[in-house]
Amino acid sequence: MPSPIDTVPGFVLDAVRKALSEGRLLAFTGAGVSAESGIPTFRGPGGMWRNKRPEDLATPEAFRRDPEGVWEWYHWRRARIARCRPNEAHLTLASWAWAGGVRIVTQNVDGLHDLALELRRPGSLGQGGAGSSLAPGPGSGPPRRGPPEPPVRLHGSLFHTRCTACGNVTPYPFEDDPSEEGPPTCRQCEGLLRPAVVWFGEALAPEDTDRAFRWATEATVTLSIGTSAVVFPAAQVPLTTLAGGGIVIEINPEETPLSAQCTLHVRAPAVQAVPALLGSPGHP
Ligand code: BV8
Ligand code: ZN
Q: What is the pLDDT along the chain (284 residues), one digit of tens a residue?
């Protein structure tokens, strides 16, 4: 069975290995990394969310116009996503994040990278995995730096709400709040709650963009995994690595507007390409 990385040239594999050993490999992910976890993408085939276009519903205007309808759409998405689990692409990235080799910047709001990091916490049941061709040998691996820096969630989280009045952000769903009809109210000020995601036309949090672009600048290799690269300013992340002389590898079965500028494309699903390219950290 051919491997999705059979055609990856040696100099790129060497650059990936070096980036992993120095903690300078950045994983920039979009909805495609969660496709094999059963979460529809936004723009690919079947990428509609209940025949609703994100551009029509993921906006502050839509929420002002129809808070119940927008809330219910997110409630439906949250319920559907809550049943999904991280796949081997999320778990491989999480293992390397714990080993200090990888940082993660995601556009996704599904929380699967965070869940994968918990499953790969050293000493947890999910820890471990075979060694790999790229895994540094004992003692030569990335310095285990303790807990990985949390992923940058450029577009926020489906599993948190923000109060439209006082701005308070809290984890959601609350145990005792089956609210499906419409947005619940803030426990601090009675303001209307909204999903803590970044809608079209809204600015991303400066602390998120600062960290994302700093990591993109420091990266010698960025993997652009499962993104159509059409949403800005997020899509600027891999371009920032290229501008700094780094390598960008696109992992996507389809071509995207970023493809022409990438160093290399791996036309395969993330769940095959990511473990094949990175393997899992050796046991230092
Ligand atoms: C802003 C959260 C300004 C909500 C989302 C230039 C600069 C700045 C802004 C703009 C600009 N040009 C245009 C804009 C405006 C806009 C924009 O980018 N529009 C696009 C559509 C043209 N940007 C904004 O509005 C941003 N805000 O710029 O504000 C500002 C400044 C100051 C003050 C005020 C305002 C905010 C954008 C954030 C929008 N929120 N989501 C929610 O999720 O409900 S965006 C939405 O798209 C999701 O977050 C998603 O993550 C994101 C990107 O989509 P992808 O992840 O790439 O998913 P997609 O389905 O498109 O592609 C999946 C890919 O996976 C495909 O290529 C497919 O082939 C591949 N695939 C499929 N299966 C697999 C796979 N790959 C690997 N393996 C597989 N198995
Ligand atoms: Zn409030």
A: 788 888 899 999 999 999 999 999 999 999 999 999 999 888 866 655 657 777 788 999 999 999 999 999 898 889 889 999 999 999 999 999 999 999 999 999 999 999 999 999 988 765 544 333 444 433 445 556 678 999 999 999 999 999 999 999 999 877 666 666 789 999 999 999 999 999 999 999 999 999 999 999 999 999 999 999 999 999 999 999 999 999 999 999 999 999 999 999 999 999 999 999 999 896 43
164 residue type, one letter: T
E strand or H helix that includes residue 95:
helix 88-98
Task: Classify domain 10-38+86-154+204-278 at the CATH superfamily level.
Answer: TPP-binding domain (3.40.50.1220)
Work out the end-to-end distance of the chain between its first and last CA atoms, rounded to an integer number of angstroms: 30
Nearest-CA neighbor of 151 among 10, 25, 28?
28
Give yes or no for residue 77 CB within 6 A of ligand 1: no
Superfamily of domain 54-83+157-197: SIR2/SIRT2 'Small Domain' (3.30.1600.10)
Residue 88 CA neighbour count, 13 Å, CB half: 14
> Which atom of ligand 1 lies at the shortest distance from residue 55's CA?
21
Tokens linked to 252: 């996507």
Instruction: Give the catalytic positions in this structure.
Output: 155
Sign of the CA dihedral with 129 first, then 132, 138, and 143 last: negative
Ligand 1 atom closest to the Cα of residue 236 is 7
> 1 vs 4, 5, 6, 272, CA distance in Å?
9, 12, 10, 12
Residue 162 backbone phi and psi in degrees, to 5: -130, 135
Compute the distance between CA of residue 78 and CA of residue 100 in angstroms, rounded to an integer: 31
Beta carbons of 97 and 89 less than 8 angstroms apart: no
